[in-house]
Design a protein that fits this description.
The complex is a heterodimer of chains A (184) and B (484).
Chain A: H1 4-12, H2 16-37, H3 41-57, H4 68-90, H5 114-122, H6 126-137, H7 142-149, H8 153-183
Helix pairs in contact in A: 1-2, 2-3, 2-4, 2-5, 3-4, 4-6, 6-8, 7-8
Chain B: H1 3-12, H2 21-31, H3 38-60, H4 67-90, H5 112-115, H6 117-126, H7 131-137, H8 144-148, H9 160-167, E1 171-172, E2 191-192, H10 193-197, H11 207-221, H12 230-233, H13 240-246, H14 267-271, E3 291-305, E4 310-333, E5 336-339, E6 351-379, E7 382-402, E8 410-411, E9 423-436, E10 441-452, E11 468-479
Parallel strand pairs in B: 3-11
Antiparallel strand pairs in B: 1-2, 3-4, 4-5, 4-6, 6-7, 7-8, 7-9, 9-10, 10-11
Classes of the chains: A mainly alpha (184), B alpha+beta (484).
Chain lengths: 184, 484
């Protein structure tokens, strides 16, 4: 079993077998991330494919300052944002002053499999989905999100607020379905 | 960060989802280097280098001398000048010493004033130069009449070697004959080195120009003396004029130096001597240097792909080519005042002289090119091509316009040039920018260099000029599809 460092070096030397090994080691870990930013699995695979091409081509620039997986995740996020950029232009993110949905009910996220949560996230509008992923799951600040997406910080916040409300609504709705099934 | 976000993050922690196999295939495809092997690179650069070489040679060979003509003329000089010099030196006429090659004269030493106007006048009047000889040997041969005239000294213009030596001083004096033009002083007769250089044997590529200069000098030094009765013997109107206008198209070769190729105009003209009254425009100073005004063309092209970057191109183009020269004479023909571009073929009574004015020559032709195009660059709908090949030009029309207000435009009569002779072959190279309208049609603009080819050359080996010029063309291209 090769360590990441060895694999990376072999990949830099254009060792196809090493590239395949590296891909198999990380593709399934990065795929859920790509899926969160995409509207469908096909879109997610396109994102992942482009991300891996970038990863292999820029392996030389990986200095080992961060974990290899973290570095790869950053590449996937950037690739996903670029993929969504056209859609973001078509559906520009606007400041939403009032969030129409106020959910006070306690939510139990753990009762859902991540694929169910993925399905909910994929239903979000592209702007909301991107901001929600970056803030809630990747842990970016609104300032960083604003810089990445070239929007104002306020827009990022309002988009996230909207996304959060929509997500909660979908979780509540899904919880009701689960409860109904359980009671039956 | 609330509980909601933490729970979500936990839900995705360690999530694993295998993508389909097509992702890896796509990655592999994306990582493959572009197929540009060593062979391909050599091919590309080799072709580019070849085309650049052809373009460069086109530039360099525009006025390349004819080796054959040069050698021939030089040989003739050796044969005709040496005995003459030996003979003259034997006469011990020391007054002619400055003209010897080893002892070039100063600017005024050789002037008529310094040697005796009477002697010079006698010499010039007795001098006759056979025109055929002029053509054949760049005027280096002297007619038998001249050879027998002991009065003709070494400064005579027929001695090219002496002229070369004299021209080394920059300005060369000419003997002022009795027929000097009114108002002309001796200084007017000084001709700069450039003009004299045209007479030197080393300037054979400028043979046409040399002959004209020589002719001019001859005229200034010794006027033509028409023999009594010659005018009556020769028909007042001959075919010479018409021939002169067609001669430039003879033999399947086209020389746009309309004024320069006058000596090759027709057999009749070639057989004339200076004493022939049909040289009635011989005092006209027709410039030997044409200024290229460029060429424009429009046309329709058809392209057949030969490879990824290669294209065979043909089509039909209309071209207009213009150049300028100067003259100082015009003729009146059928009540019309028309510019004279040649000193051959005009009736004495029709020729008039004016101040120097410009002639604009305009040629119209229809051409069929056959070129190979190589695509150098491709960006969006634009592509740049280097084209090289040949084209057959059919001369449709030739007009000469003088810039004097009262002159009409002369339209050259192609009556004596048959269909084949009006075709002229040229090498055509160019840089093209094409804008693709769709997969079949494109608009194109091209900067080209056209070099006319002398197929047979003149039989006497003297006229070998192959004119070339730059031009700009516009066209619509239609691309055929190569069947797989």
């Amino acid at each position: 079993m090769f360590q990441d460092e060895d694999l990376i070096q072999k990949c830099i030397d254009n060792d196809e077998q090493a590239q395949r090994t590296l891909y198999e080691r990380y593709a399934s870990k990065l795929m859920p991330m790509a899926m969160r930013y995409a509207r469908s699995q096909a879109d997610a695979e396109d994102i992942l494919q482009d991300a891996f091409i970038k990863i292999f081509r820029s392996l030389k620039s990986f200095r080992g300052e961060s974990q290899f997986l973290t570095w790869m995740k950053r590449v996937v996020i950037n690739t996903a944002i670029n993929h969504n950029r056209k859609k973001l232009y078509q559906e520009p993110m606007l400041d939403i002053e009032k969030t129409p949905l106020h959910v006070e009910q306690e939510l139990i996220i753990s009762q859902f499999h991540f694929t169910e949560l993925l399905a909910m996230i994929q239903k979000l509008p592209v702007g909301c989905r991107t901001v929600f992923n970056m803030f809630a799951i990747e842990g970016y600040s609104h300032k960083e999100i604003a810089e990445h997406l070239e929007v104002s910080e306020g827009t990022s916040k309002s988009q996230y607020s909207r996304a959060r409300a929509l997500m909660k609504a979908m979780v509540i709705e899904a919880s009701k379905v689960v409860e109904t099934k359980m009671s039956m | 960060m609330g509980e909601f976000e933490k729970d979500l993050r936990n839900a995705f922690e360690g999530a694993d989802f295998a993508p389909s196999e097509r992702v890896w295939e796509g990655v592999q495809q994306g990582l493959k280097p572009p197929k540009k092997g060593v062979f391909f690179m050599w091919q590309t650069y080799g072709v580019a280098a070849t085309l650049i070489f052809l373009l460069t040679m086109g530039f360099l060979l525009r006025n390349e001398p004819s080796t054959k003509a040069g050698n021939g003329a030089e040989e003739r000089l050796t044969q005709t000048e040496r005995p003459e010099k030996i003979e003259k030196e034997a006469t011990n006429d020391t007054s002619k010493a400055p003209a010897k090659a080893d002892n070039p004269p100063s600017a005024y030493e050789g002037a008529g004033a310094g040697t005796g106007a009477e002697e010079a006048e006698t010499s010039m009047q007795e001098t006759t130069v056979d025109m055929k000889d002029l053509q054949a040997g760049m005027g280096t041969e002297v007619s038998s009449d001249r050879n027998t005239n002991a009065g003709l000294n070494d400064r005579d213009l027929t001695t090219s070697a002496a002229l070369n030596d004299q021209s080394a001083n920059g300005l060369v004096p000419l003997v002022a004959g009795s027929d000097s033009r009114p108002g002309e002083s001796d200084e007017d007769l000084l001709i700069d080195q450039n003009s004299i250089a045209l007479l030197s044997l080393s300037e054979l590529p400028e043979s046409i120009a040399a002959i004209q200069n020589r002719w001019e000098l001859k005229n200034m030094v010794g006027p033509m003396e028409f023999e009594a009765g010659l005018l009556e013997e020769l028909p007042a109107e001959t075919d010479t004029r018409r021939a002169s206008l067609n001669g430039v198209l003879s033999g399947g070769n086209f020389d746009p130096n309309g004024s320069g190729d006058e000596m090759a105009l027709s057999q009749e003209a070639q057989n004339l001597s200076f004493n022939d009254p049909r040289f009635d425009a011989s005092r006209a100073i027709v410039s030997t240097n044409e200024t290229q005004l460029g060429s424009v063309s429009v046309g329709f092209g058809v392209g057949l792909p030969l490879g990824k970057r290669w294209l065979f191109k043909t089509g039909l183009r209309y071209s207009q080519y213009r150049f300028a020269s100067t003259t100082n004479a015009y003729s009146v023909e059928n009540g019309k005042e028309l510019p004279i571009y040649s000193r051959v073929g005009f009736d004495t009574t029709e020729v008039f002289y004016a101040g120097e004015y410009q002639l604009t020559h305009t040629l119209h032709s229809i051409s069929i090119p056959a070129q190979i195009g190589f695509r150098v660059l491709n960006f969006n709908r634009f592509s740049t091509w280097i084209n090289a090949g040949v084209a057959a030009d059919y001369m449709a029309n030739y007009t000469i316009k003088g810039d004097l207000n009262f002159l009409d435009t002369r339209k050259v009569d192609f009556g004596q040039s048959d269909f084949i002779n009006r075709f002229n072959l040229n090498v055509l190279t160019g840089l093209e920018l094409a804008y693709q309208l769709n997969d079949k049609f494109a608009l194109s603009g091209e900067v080209f260099l056209r070099q006319y080819v002398r197929l047979g050359g003149a039989t006497d080996g003297t006229f070998q000029a192959s004119p070339s010029f730059f031009g700009f063309g516009l066209g619509v291209n239609y691309y055929l599809r190569k069947k797989d």
